[in-house]
Amino acid sequence: MKKKTIISLVILVVVVGIAAATYFYFYSKDQCGNNSSLSAILIKKTVPELAQESDAVVIGTIQEVLPSQCKRNKSGDKMVYTDYKLKVEQSIKGNVNGQITIRLPGGTIGSGANQITVSVEDNPELAKGEKVLVFLDKNGFFALPKNYYSIHGAMMGKYQITDSQAINLVETLPIGVLMNEIIAPSEPNRPTSDKIESAKTSIRQFTNDPNLELNYITTEKNPSNFTVGKVTQVGEGTWRTDTPKEWERPIYVFQQTKYIDSLCEVYEYEIDARNNQLIEVHVKYPQSDMELSQETKAKKCSSYGSLYTPLKTKTQIEAIAMDYLSRSISSFNQIRSQFVFKPSTKNAVNAPAANEWFYQDTSYKLPEGLSGDVYNYPTIRIIVSSGGKLIYYFNSVELFKN
What domains lie within the chain, and their CATH numbers? Predict the structure, then answer.
């Protein structure tokens, strides 16, 4: 009997202008066995933002699809992957030329009774002979060799090029329009030093670390996971959201310099530019370390240990979560009883997001004709790993206030 593992990604497509998405992936220790799993936290990005974050952007033709293999990723866990040979015909960013290899998660290994298929839902699909425009990363799931890349933004990081048209999940548009978005991205103004320091103060209060060192990264036009606007369906399973000016919510993005685990990851923080409220905290590889090899990272960060072990009790983890919430929410005592506990798995040892507390103000009503993404209501989420370390925080309460 063939063994098949289905890996699902929850995709929320929101378009403001031309849009794309990036993800934080969580995966099992061994996809090459029977019980693999993968989930994702979506962070929406516009095409200009995606272009800025990518190491390279190229147009080329898929020359060859190689047999899938099983390989260890950066953290030493086994993953199934497939390599695609791409002949670069035009380098838009990154000075990439000649033939490169794109490595994507998923594929089929083995044969007969030992065959295992790992299907990554909404992974970008590449076919021999296909002409594509792709946003590329030098590092993805794997520590990649020279001239190897992953696709930045999952399925939204790939456009099929046909008859001068660029086609992806969201829409079809002239290749020239897409090129203009990539070549001339607009970036909001850098905040003043006073605003940067005020934002840092809010982050340090949340972490309860007055000496936490933080680097300002950029200013984004909207938070990663908050959009309010008029939704229009543009295709089967896809929508466009047009955001009124009064619902724009610019944010400041910071990364801490202190590592949090053996993978050399750090926390990234999103701050509401209007009032210095903390909107989101998530894990990310720092920009300064994107070029480091797996061996260098292992040596550099081995002393930081894992986010997931040693395993703490639910009572201990809840105390940690409530402590974070009490520092970040002025009205926490009034709404504490309304938080709902959501255990996401029975096996906390291998699950990065083992414990979640969730709050929504469902009495709130958006103006008629407008919808919210990811939520229609003011929402607070905190997810704490099995080792008791915060790995995800989201608070959109102040974002719903004009």
Answer: 3-183 (2.40.50.120), 193-400 (no CATH)
Q: What is residue 334's three-state secondary structure?
A: helix
Please name the residues in contact with 21: beta carbons below 8 A apart, sequence gap of 6 or more: 11, 12, 13, 42, 43, 44, 45, 153, 154, 156
Q: In this structure, are residues 77 and 30 in contact, taking their beta carbons and an 8 Å threshold?
A: yes
Cβ partners under 8 Å of residue 335, min gap 6 = 329, 359
Q: How many CA atoms lie within 13 A of 218 on its CB side?
A: 12
Spell out the residues 6+ positions from residue 111 whose beta carbon is closer than 8 angstroms to its own: none
Distance CA 100, CA 85 (A): 6
Are 94 and 135 in contact, with CB atoms under 8 Å apart? no
Percentages helix, strand, coil for the chain (3-state, rounded to 5) are 20, 40, 40
Whose CA is closest to 270, among 287, 253, 248?
A: 253
Token representation of residue 126 = 């590449």
Three-state SS at 380: strand
Over its length of 402 residues, how does the chain's per-residue pLDDT go in tens digits? 444 444 433 333 333 333 344 444 444 555 676 545 454 444 556 788 788 888 889 999 999 999 988 877 666 667 888 999 999 999 888 888 899 999 988 888 887 877 888 877 677 889 999 999 999 988 665 667 888 999 988 888 999 999 889 998 777 888 888 888 887 654 556 788 899 999 999 999 999 999 999 999 888 888 989 999 988 775 555 567 788 889 999 999 999 998 988 878 899 999 999 999 999 999 887 756 555 566 776 778 888 887 777 888 888 999 999 999 999 998 999 999 999 998 765 554 444 456 899 999 999 999 999 999 889 999 999 998 888 888 899 999 999 998
Torsions phi, psi for 37 (to 5 deg): -150, 155
Q: 36: which 2 tokens?
A: 């693999």
CA-to-CA distance for 288 and 279, rounded, in angstroms? 24
What distances in angstroms separate CA 233 from CA 42, 167, 238, 372, one per listed residue?
20, 16, 6, 15
